Backbone:
């Protein structure tokens, strides 16, 4: 659908870099929400009137109601690799193309997974708070003694691209024994390259010194880690979640941390974020960050540009760069 300039119109649902708007503007009339506030479903439906493409982030839900209100929409391009904000059944039924931003964030996100693991195991933020509070008046041998990272066992739940990049860091950089659990086993060459061995979930939980969650969110993955799973872990273990809020039962984790069922946790994602379960804010043995695993300027720019390129490629050639449902759209 073209507007009165004769060019198709697209909408950008969040403030993005000016370079991204400039690139989109070479092809389309671009309208945007030039703020960091999330539009309500009604506001988004309204702003999408007459638009054939939209750039979303993980905070905007694309569902049957939004699509019914905007039957002219042809592509929804998420600026994220995760796409649990998309109702894929509704998107497929509407014959709309969905895209995400894989690959461009893999190494950056794996770096952050490791940063959070190191900060958690070595009690970086807890000890910094102690120092800033003026409590450091003597040194002692066991002061903030944490868990070993090098040479320990790293258990990765979810072994996609980011999980593999974390495995490489652990195995090759830190001499860790890497075990993983995933819906499917990696090809033998990939397992060898990552130096990772497949185990069942129970073995991973009870064997790993550090458990890293990198699996995508789906209703089936809801509370993959709850009280029962935490109880299977070593009392000295750490848990790191860079996957999605809802994969961990945050209330159960807060209680387990308070009762020292496990030693510590590092969380970048939360159930109902940007709200954080209040009990997590009061336990000392958790490192909390505001969903920043992919947040370097270079990577965030690459993600937004890839989303823009998906819209441009699809609307000008019929083929997106990183489509999620090309087959469903071809059939529709
Ligand atoms: C992703 O790309 O899925 C990150 O979590 C940012 O939303």
Residues:
């Amino acid at each position: 659908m073209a507007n009165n300039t004769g060019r198709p119109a697209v909408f950008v649902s969040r403030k993005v870099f000016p370079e991204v708007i400039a690139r989109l503007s070479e092809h389309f009339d671009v309208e945007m929400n030039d703020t960091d506030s999330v539009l309500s479903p009604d506001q988004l439906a309204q702003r999408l009137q007459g638009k054939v493409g939209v750039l979303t982030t993980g905070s905007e839900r694309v569902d049957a109601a939004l699509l019914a209100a905007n039957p002219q929409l042809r592509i929804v391009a998420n600026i994220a690799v995760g796409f649990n904000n998309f109702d894929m059944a509704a998107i497929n039924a509407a014959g709309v193309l969905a895209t995400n931003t894989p690959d461009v964030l893999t190494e950056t996100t794996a770096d952050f997974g490791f940063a959070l693991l190191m900060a958690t195991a070595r009690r970086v933020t807890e000890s910094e708070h102690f120092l800033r509070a003026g409590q450091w008046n003597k040194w002692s041998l066991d002061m903030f003694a944490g868990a070993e990272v090098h040479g320990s066992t790293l258990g990765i739940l979810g072994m996609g691209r980011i999980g593999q990049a974390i495995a490489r860091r652990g195995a090759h950089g830190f001499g860790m024994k890497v075990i993983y659990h995933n819906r499917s086993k990696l090809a033998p060459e990939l397992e060898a390259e990552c130096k990772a061995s497949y185990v069942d979930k129970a073995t991973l939980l009870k064997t790993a010194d550090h458990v890293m969650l990198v699996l995508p969110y789906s209703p089936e993955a809801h509370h993959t880690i709850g009280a029962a799973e935490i109880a299977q872990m070593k009392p000295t273990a750490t848990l790191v979640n860079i996957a999605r809020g809802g994969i961990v039962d945050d209330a159960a984790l807060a209680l387990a941390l308070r009762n020292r069922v496990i030693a510590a946790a590092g969380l970048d994602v939360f159930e109902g974020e940007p709200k954080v379960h209040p009990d997590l804010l009061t336990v000392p043995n958790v490192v909390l960050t505001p969903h920043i695993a992919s947040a370097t300027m270079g990577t965030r720019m690459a993600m937004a540009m890839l989303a823009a390129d998906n819209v441009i490629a699809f609307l000008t050639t019929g083929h997106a760069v990183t489509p999620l449902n090309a087959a469903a759209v071809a059939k529709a």
